[in-house]
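User: ok so my PI wants both of these folded by tonight, can you help

Assistant: No problem, let's get them done. Here's the first:
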Amino acid sequence: MKKIKIVIETVLKGIGQIMLQESAWTGLFFLIAIFYDSLLMGAGALVSAIIGTATAKVCKFNDENIKAGLYGFNATLIGVGLVFFFQTSPLIWFLVVLGSVLSTLLMEFSIRRKIPFFTFPFIAITVIAILMIQHFGLAAARVPGVNEEIPELEVFEVAAHAYSEVIFQGTIAAGLLFFIGVFLNNPTAALYGFVAAVIAGAIAYFDRDSAKLIEDGMFSFNAVLCGIACSGTKPRDGLYVLLATVIATCFDIFMMHNGWITLTFPFVLSMWIIVSLKKLVGHFENKMAIVEENK
């Protein structure tokens, strides 16, 4: 029973790590939300999370990293993403399995090389799969249905949809469950994600982008990840959230205007910039501290 509990917690943590939360409860809320919107996408999320985790176990990767769920979140996004974009078939399920395995290997490379990949394995594998399927006509595109919505405030609608779109969902209910999942583990991160979504929506609004796409959170879901990733209790953390959100949103708008597949690449790009900036600031602060000590 104890081993089964550890396996379940590890798989759920892998799902929770999509929004950088090492929490089985967060992962459970995410999984419930995905199943609420789509049973197929829920199945895709669960299968890929299990395969990503199992691959790491079979390859005997670091046990602590496995238990932290670091090999599950890219795999989960691939599973949900492929089921979102295409009608399910044996080929799509095969690609879900293959993509989950490859994402685990890429994540291990990232950890060993100390390169902050974030969701880059998901982006690279999913984009290659989409382009290959479309080029050879291997599967039919899918237009997923969503549950009926109820009227809501516009700002709330943007933020809730932004949370739901992080994992390819489209309802307010899913967004609320995602928000609650993050809030239970890290209230500060959840609130920063909410604020970042609103800021991104405002940027897209002033750029005169589609009101429907803005309300659906299409310009804000990368910002949610930026808000969560850069969150903290220091004033400078707020500045990092703002900078990351602006960078991600502007690049998101640029990619969408050019008809590119965005996924979470704007978030990854902004985080690469923020990580480099933080290293630069840290290096400068260390030098200043040394100067102060020598006075």
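One down. Here's the second:
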Amino acid sequence: MNRKELAPESSPQAAYGAHLRKVREGFAWTQQEVADKVEYASSHMSAVETGRKSPTLRLSRRLDHAFGISGAEESFERMWREMKQGSLLEGFPQFIGYEARAAEIRLYEVGVMPGLLQTPAYAEALAQSAVKRGVITPEQADERVSLIAERQMVLKRQSPPLVFVVLDEGCLRRPIGSPEVMDAQLARLVEFADLPNTVLQVATFDMGGRRPFDLPITLLTMPDRSLMSYAESAQQGHLERESTSVLPLLTAYHQLQAEAPSQAASVAMINQFRKGSP
């Protein structure tokens, strides 16, 4: 049997594969036995072990379960997250960590629903669209959807943050997925607005130049009341933690909330979209 020598220092994928081989051989299991336990093809497992194919979050969790190392320092999920964060936009991995601990979250979104409010079907439709355009692989699409679901856990923690959301009207008008997907997504917005710790508003097109922001932005207030902002372009993300830079953005966000229709008016507008008569 040919045994390909591994070079774990050559890439994160190779390091992951070398770790998989080490753990597998420690259990005296063949690749086929591991493949059977995690319900993947043996050819796929071979490609991951030799660094020819990138692992996914789903596979990593199944491997951890099979080897009994879920949550451990040497877990495959931990390695996957380290790999994934290395390929994310600059600032985004740090932002996710702060977002999960924030006392208050303020966000303004343009064009698509923000990740914290996306339904699984809406997130899947966006991800599959990116796959069809050749932007990401099917495996990366699964990872993207999983990451969104994990970020939304901040809304379900024991002491959830106050969350203020202002959506550009285009978020409501842009169809993503089937009509059923959009209807469920709009229903999700109404449910979100009804929570005791949230405020949802729609920045209508007729606000025109009264909008202080042209691009999406997120503002975080941490438990110690420190402030930070996060914004990104197609190429990079930027996390700003200097209060002197963030305070003007917070003032502008308050101005946006004052100019936008109230939550009651915004929810009524969303319901009109659901009826097909915005």
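The two ends are 66 Å apart (CA to CA). Residues 243-259 form the longest helix (17 residues). Good luck tonight!
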